[in-house]
Every structure is written in structure tokens, then in C-alpha cells.
Amino acid sequence: MSDVPRPLKIAGQSVRRRDLVEKVTGAAEYCVDVTMPGMLHAKVVRSDRAHARILEINTGEALAHRGVVAVVTAADLKPLFPRFGHIIADHWILASGKVRYYGEPVALVVAESLADATDAAELVRVDYDDLPAVLDAEEALAAGAALVHEESYPATADDSFKILAGGVHETDASVEDRPTNLAHEVTLEWGDVDQAFADAAVVVESQAGYPMLYAYAMEPYNAVASYGDGELRVVSTAQHPYMVREDLARVFGLPLAKVRVIAPYLGGGYGSKSYTKVEPLAALGSWVTRRPVKLVLDIEESIYTTRVDSAQVQVRSAFAADGTILARAFDIVMDSGAYADNSPLVLAKCVNRCFGPYRVPNLRVRGRSVYTNTAPASSYRGFGAPQGNLAGETNLDRAAEQLGIDPADIRRRNLVAKGESLLPGKRGMDAELVADLDMVVASLERDRRDEPGYGIGFGCAASDAGAFPVSTAQVRIQTDGSVTVLSGSTEMGQGSRSLLAQVAAEELGVDLDQVAVVQSDTAITPYERTTGASRTTTLVGLALQRACADARAKIRQMAAEVAGVSPESVADAPGGVELPDGSTAGFGDVVQRWFGGSAGEVTGIGLLRREGPTQEMPPFWEIGMVGVGVDVDLETGHVVVDQLVTVADVGFAVNPKAVEGQDLGAATQGLGAALYEELVYDGPQLVNANVVDYRVPRMGDLPRKIDLMLAERRDGVGPYGAKGAGEGTLNPIGGAVAAAVARAVGRWPTRLPLTPERVWRLANGIEEDD
Amino acid sequence: MLPRFDLLRPTTVAEAVGCLSEESVPYCGGTELLLAMRAGLYRPSALVDIKRVPELRGIRLRDGVLSIGAATSHRVVALDALVRGQLPMLATVEQGVGNARVRAQGSVGGNLCFAEPKSDLATALVAYEASVSLTSAGGTREVLVSELIQGAYFADKEPDELLVSIEIPLPGDHDAVYLKYQTMERPTVGVAVMNDRSGRRCRVVVGAVGEVPVVWEGTDPSEVVPDEIAELVDPVVDLTGSARYKRHVTAVYVRRALRALEGSHPS
Ligand SMILES: Cc1cc2nc3c(=O)[nH]c(=O)nc-3n(C[C@H](O)[C@H](O)[C@H](O)COP(=O)(O)OP(=O)(O)OC[C@H]3O[C@@H](n4cnc5c(N)ncnc54)[C@H](O)[C@@H]3O)c2cc1C
């Protein structure tokens, strides 16, 4: 790469999404569309209680039902490794010995048709002996609480977790002698916190509750699996097919190369489809019957499969009289449900994100992830940041009010500067946060209305994003000069298919329509760790740039050979090479002439690991800068969002329209948790495990004014100075809405969502149970 | 998924009525019925599709009574010139039902027969003192909508009865408004005020908040005390609010509806 930036042709353009037409017309293939010859259908029999010993599973009647081929139970797991989980392999594929939550899979009925499987599933009789259940974190942590897990499970060998956890210290529950419901505990501490509190001019204490959510993706979890001849093939709704492959290889004792996981288009993921979900069940069905098995969950089953960690956070902050932060202390308790899944990492991220992108000289954070007899929680867009940021930002806003300082000024005073360290030992801040905040505030102030019931709020966040920098990509140059890009990164609606095509076209100097992109098939596309942590543009983009450079080097070499000149004398040209005589040859010509005839292909390989630009962790900071203006109907408490202002500090927008789409999507999803969304347990069961009663934002809820701004300062490590987007904007929305509502009604909320009744009670000072 | 069932497709009311029994039930837009069946709450052995019965469709004015066929969709009612001209409040209500798909697919008869408590239509029809015509092999009877809606998901209708039409007596010189407070998929509270000036009668009907619409009757809107009406309702406590809150917003919306009524008055 030369130092002089060359003018970009395709990167930076809002090109049309590659999947646009096929998705709009319904032609796009999703996992649910995939069939296999001789395929059977499965239906899961689920626990109808929160915590109970399984005495007996009577499958006779179901087996006798028309069309039923097998009824699979935990007994069938004997020859296999029966659990999955990439951090703590604690998640039973089928409940064994006892059930730990309402909705837990107990048996799998496999039949010739879905109707048969569904009918027969009702005939499986399970005898239970009820156990006392712990239905929330407080109950679970109480002395003498019933245990969700009596045994502890060794952590898996994936040590990247420790690096990703980012400096936090683990107190793994499994190392304690007496088991408790503590799934995971982490702390983060520096400076002399107690002294700083003693010296403070003002100490502000507050608490914030983040609701239990469902990361509503339109497409529920589903998979189709085929086991035979020591090979397993699974097509599923997996964000991270390579991670799923590892779990499946462990369960079935197969070499990684014999497990093929394919992820077609995903109908939304938002973190909920990261890591293993229904794949082991479908695969198990096929392993037992030796026929392909398809399993499609409905929305209710999906909600019971994976939800979002709810959190209760206590915050204390110490300030100097001028608003300078002297110290902060956080205590975080997350309700992680019956199995750990990715909650340990969500917790670790919450711990290192909760205090915001501020200079905090003295810090103490304690985080606990707690097992309860509820649906298991795992990753969600923002990864612990939304839960922690709400608490931290609300506390800061209350401090500003108490100190009589403008809430923007208190932030300007404390935001870390470019290059400054936010977490010890980590990459310095790669963004200009004060400049971003100024953009937000200017836009909000322009349209703020001074009326009763109107309030504005804003918030800042920075997340150590990108996850672990391992990525590989390939480009295959065809005999006609067209290009196939191979990547294990999943297209889940975020637009990576277009983005990867743009990067390849830019690097190789070919037209966009000469580039095809193939993604997410572990047998074909090269390794990609995950599709998460907003990493694709930055990390896959870098790997792809390297693959293009590798292909170009190979082609220069071949051109030199064919022309009988030295390789150094051959230069790159758009779509080909330039020879010393000034003539040019296209990629296709070179490939054809080198192989002879019209055959051949050249593969460029790009590998990325922790070195060079991606040595320092995190690969980049993902910034969240948002503001809202709200109109509160003071008589009913109903909140209407009038203004939404976001800044995408992405370094460089490879596809500006796609970045705006991500920001609007993330912000809108954040508004869901801020105003409407909450899974509600009444006893062991959810009362709103459906999309009518679990209310997500709708078109009509979109703000009147939407101002999506880009801040492109080319300060990222990714291609052309890019950094990731997609989650950042969600993270501070909760706090921004809480502040706006507080300013409109005159009292500070302590939990989300701010449903009309809660806001009405808040405005009138009426307690929740009154 | 949907369980197995037989599908019957009569083309006349007589034929349709002949198909009906405890196990063989009317099926119109399916917006409620099919969801209930999919959720496993209901498992009839046969569905009697009434969409091909011409007598069940259309809107007619006869002797001062507007008659709406049971299978008519919300959308058709909302856009109908007669309805908009004679009963503009009803057109507004129908335009605000659910979403575009529900309005295009769902029928007025299905709405009443399902007796989902959070109905806008039932509240409006009670305000108009509308009735329905129910037909079975044994004959036809007329029932006021206020009597048809007996409870949550409970309409006073025998399994062998078909709702054929809704009959709305046209009021004389009147003003009517309907306001609803809705934050979820269905209304939290709906308030209809019907002020029949020629008859010196005023009705306030509050629906969706309780299991059945509550009616207040007087002679003039000035007599309405919103807080008293709020005391009349028996709120269903759910995710949209506690009893206290729902009573409170009932009073708010009655007040707003009265204000809107004043605003709608030409003089
Ligand atoms: C997402 C959603 C949102 C909605 N929002 C609103 C709203 O805001 N306000 C509101 O008022 N309503 C609302 N509804 C209700 C909607 O109006 C009804 O679902 C619809 O009108 C029902 O009509 P249908 O033809 O689909 O009935 P079907 O589902 O076909 O039938 C419903 C029931 O009525 C019976 N039935 C149907 N027709 C007859 C007949 N002629 N005689 C006897 N029995 C009959 C059926 O056997 C069945 O038991 C909503 C519904 C949905 C699904």
C-alpha cells in the first residue's frame, strides 16, 4: 500500500444492496426454504415447569402415532458429548435428569411430516417431581436458594474469551467449592476509589434496571441437518457457522473437516443467532434416524431459546465541583437464565463499558451473572453496553443536574481525547468524541421545543469492538477477469455482501458487477471467527484487501513469466497489469496465457491475526453518539419520540447509506427497550412470549425528525480508515431517552422500558405498587 | 401449525346455516380463527367458509336503517360512501382498526362474533344502538350488539347461528366521536360519544378497557362527569396497565372525547 491515498472509485459509494431485489421479491433463499432429500420433520417437547426432576419420559404413545420415526430423549445422548456452550459447556442438548426452565427441550419427536411430529409431541408424557425454583436474580443469590446447576462445568479451551473480556478479572464460580447460582463473576478496579469518594465535592448515587428482552429477528431459529458416513451437514440460522461447527464436532466426536455448517441469508440476528442454538437438536435427530431432519421453531419457542440478559445496576460516582469525574463504582447483577451461553462475555463487556468513554481515574466495578430458572440469555446487539451504559449515563446526567452543569459540558469535560487510554493496556481512543457530541447537541438544540412535556437527552458510548481479530478471506480471479470473493462472514441483513464486493472491486480495479460474493459455508468459504462485534467491515475488509493484494502479486508474477520480463517491472493496473512496454493486460488474459488455453484460476489469500495494525486490542472502538427529543403526554404518560439524532463515527463509510441504515436500525431497536419492550415472567412462564404482546417498535413509532450524521475522519484500522458500525448507536439510546423523559416530567426513572403507565406514575410521584 | 380440518364452501345463507354445528364453524377472514387454531386453542373439524355467500356482503340503506353484511371487511366499510356520509364516526373507527392487513382481511361479523374485548367496532356500534341479525335453521332473531357481547370472547350466539348482518338505525341530527388510546397492538381504551340532538339523548360508551363495553346515558353531553364514568368501568389488568391507570386514562379520554365533540359541532 502506498502512502499517497489514491482516489477511491467504488468504496465510499452508496451502491445498491446486492440482495435487494431478491429479498423484496421473496426469491432470496433463507434457511427455512432449504430442504434435503428424504427429509424428516422434528418438533420439540418442552418442559412445562420451571424446575423439576424428570422421573420418566413415556414415549410409547407418541412412537405409535402415524408417521413418527423416533422420539429422541437424553437417553440417546449417552454415546455423545451431551452439552454445548463455547465458554462453559453447560447447556444440555436435551434436559437430562432435570429441567431448569419452562420451555426447555425435553424430547424431540421426528416424523414424516410436521403435522405428525406436532401431533405426536403432545403424546409424549413426562412425569416430573417439582423442585423449588429461583425465578429472578435476587432469589437466586439468596442464602439457601435452590441450585439451578448442582455441578460445575469446566470452561472450554477457548482462551480468546479472556483476551476479549478486556482486562477484567474473573472469579469463576467453578473454582469455588460450594456451588451457587453465580454463573460468573468479574471485577475491574484501578486507583484508590475509597479515597476519591472521601475527597469528592459531590457523590451521586443512582440505580438502573435494564429489561429482559427478546432480540426479535423476523426469522425464528431453524436448521436442517443430515448425518451419515461419519459426516454431518447442517444448514442453519447461525451468525457464526464456524463456532457452531466446533460445538457440533465436540458433540459428535467428528473432525472439524467432517462437519459442514452452512448459513444462507439470515432473517435478522442482532446477536441472538450467535453461537449454537437448534443445530445440535436437528443434528441429533438425524444422528438417531440417519435421515435429514428439519427443525423450525416458532416465535414463542425462539423466545424461550435465547433472550437478552436483564440487569440491575447500582452506581456511585464522585465529582469535583467543576464536574470532573474523580471515581466511579458499579455493581452489576445480570439475570442470565438457566444456562451460561455467552452471558459471561456479555457480563465482562458490561463491566468494561458501563462507565462510559470518560476519564475515570479511580474505578471499581463488580459484575455478577446469575443462573435462574428462566430462559437462557446470551449475546444481544451492543453486548452488555446497553445494560451498563444506561446506568452510567443516567448517573452522569443526574450529577450534572445536581452540580448545576450543562449535561453536554459535564461530558465534554470528561470524555477521553483522541489517543488517550480508556482501558489500561488497550488501544487508545481512535475517535474525536467531543466533536461528535457537539454535532449531536447542535442538531438537537436546533429543533428543541420549549413546551411542557418536551425534553431532550443524549448519551455517549464507546465499546471495545471487533472481537478477536482472526479472519481469512479469499478471492478467485477467473479466466474472464471476473472475481469470486469467499468469506465465512454471514450476511444477516447488515449488507456485508455489498460491502465485500465493493472492497474487492476497489482493490482490483474491476467493475462491481464483475464481483460475486459467496459467504458462510464452512466447507467452501475460509475461516471466520464470528459475525459480531461490528467487525466485518474492519476485519474481514482487511483480510479481503490482503487477499486482493496476494492475487495481484501472483498475477504480476505470472504476467512477468508469460512476457519474459522481471516481476518487479510489472505494475498494477485497474483490472489487470501494466507491462514495462506500457501495454496492459487484463487479469483474465494473464490467467489464460499462464495456464494455456481458456482454463485456470488464481486464488488470492488474505490472513488476519493479532499483529501489525490489529495487534492492539480492541481492533477499534465503536462509538455511540445519540440524542433524542421526546414529547410526553403528561396526562397519560405516553412518550412520542420527536427527534432522533445520531453520529456514526465510522472513520470511513464504505457504503454511507448502509451505515445510515445500521444506525437507524440500531437506534430504533434501542428505542424498543427504552419505551416498549420487556419480557414479563409471571411465575415460571412468560406472559408475553409472542409478538403481539411483546411490542417492538413499528413504522408509526419512528421519530418525526431523523438526523443521521456521518463523522468520517479516516481514523480506523480498517480499509480506507474504516471502523465498524451497527451496534454503537443502540448503546446510549436508553440513557438518552431516560434523560429526555426525566427532563420532561421532572423525575428520574430507575428502569426501562418507560411504558406509559410508568411515565405517568413517575410524573405524578405514584409508586409502582400503589 | 394449523391442524387438519375440512373446508366447506357454501354459496347461500341457507346452505351455510345447514353446515353449522359445534364442530363445524364459520370462517370468514380467519384473522382470529386461524390464529386460535394455530396456537392449539381451538380445533374444529370443519370450517365453513362464508366468503362466497353474496348475501353476507355489501352495505345497504333501507327504511332509515343501514345494513352491513357480516362478511364485509373493515376496509370496505371505512371507504363506503353511505357510511362516510351517514355515519362518519363509524368510518373513522373502521379506518383505525388494527393494521392494513387486518382491515383488508377481517370482517365486521368476525369481529363481533369473536367478542375480543379490545374491539373498537363493538364500542362504536353500541353507541349507535345497533343490532345484529342471527340466522339458524330454526329462523332469524335480532339482538342488540350490547346484548350480543356478553363477556370476553363470549358472544350470545348459538353454534348453529350465523351472523348475517349488522343493522344500524340512522340517528337524526347528531354528532358522534370516537377516540381511542392505543399503545400496543389493540386499544387500551376506546370512547364513543353519540349526541343525538333531535332525540335529546347522549350516550357515552367505553370499550376495550373492560370485558364488555360500558354505557352511560343522559340527555346532554354537559351532564357527563368523566371521573364518574371511569368509576363505572371494570378494567382488565394486563400489560397495558393496572386498574388504577386504566381508570385514569378512561377519564382522560372521556374528557378528550367530549372536547372533540364540541370541536366537531358546526355551530
Ligand atoms: C393484529 C390484529 C389487530 C387487531 N386490531 C384491532 C383493533 O385495533 N380494533 C378492533 O376492533 N379489532 C382489531 N382486531 C380484530 C379484527 O377486527 C378481527 O380479527 C376481524 O374483524 C375478525 O374477522 P374475521 O373475518 O377475520 O374473523 P374470523 O377469524 O374468520 O372469525 C372469528 C370468529 O368469528 C366467527 N365468525 C366469523 N364470521 C361469523 C359469522 N358471520 N357468523 C357467526 N360467526 C362468525 C368464527 O367462527 C370465529 O369464531 C385485530 C386483529 C388482529 C389480528
Describe this structure in words.
The complex is a heterodimer of chains A (770) and B (267). Chain A has 770 residues and is α+β, with helices and mostly antiparallel strands. Chain A has 19 helices and 33 strands. In chain A, the strands form 9 sheets. Chain A has a 7-stranded mixed β-sheet, with helices on both faces. Chain A has a 6-stranded mixed β-sheet with strand order 9-10-19-18-17-11, with helices on both faces. In chain A, helix 10 (343-353) runs parallel beside helix 11, helix 14 (496-508) runs parallel beside helix 15 (536-563) and helix 15 crosses helix 16. The model of chain A has no long low-confidence stretch (mean pLDDT 95). By secondary structure, chain B is α+β, with helices and mostly antiparallel strands. A 5-stranded antiparallel β-sheet of chain B has the order 4-5-10-6-7. In chain B, strands 11-12-13-14 form a 4-stranded antiparallel β-sheet, with helices on both faces. In chain B, strand 12 and strand 13 form a beta hairpin. In chain B, helix 5 (88-95) packs antiparallel against helix 8 and helix 10 (226-232) crosses helix 11. The A-B interface holds A 114-115, 118-119, 635-636, 638, 676, 680, 687-688, 692-693, 695, 755-757, 760-761, 770 and B 1, 3-4, 181, 183-185, 239-242, 244-245, 248-249, 252. Bound molecules: flavin-adenine dinucleotide (FAD). Residues 25-33, 50, 70, 97-98, 102, 105-107, 109-111, 113-114, 116, 119-121, 162-163, 185-187 of chain B line the site of flavin-adenine dinucleotide.
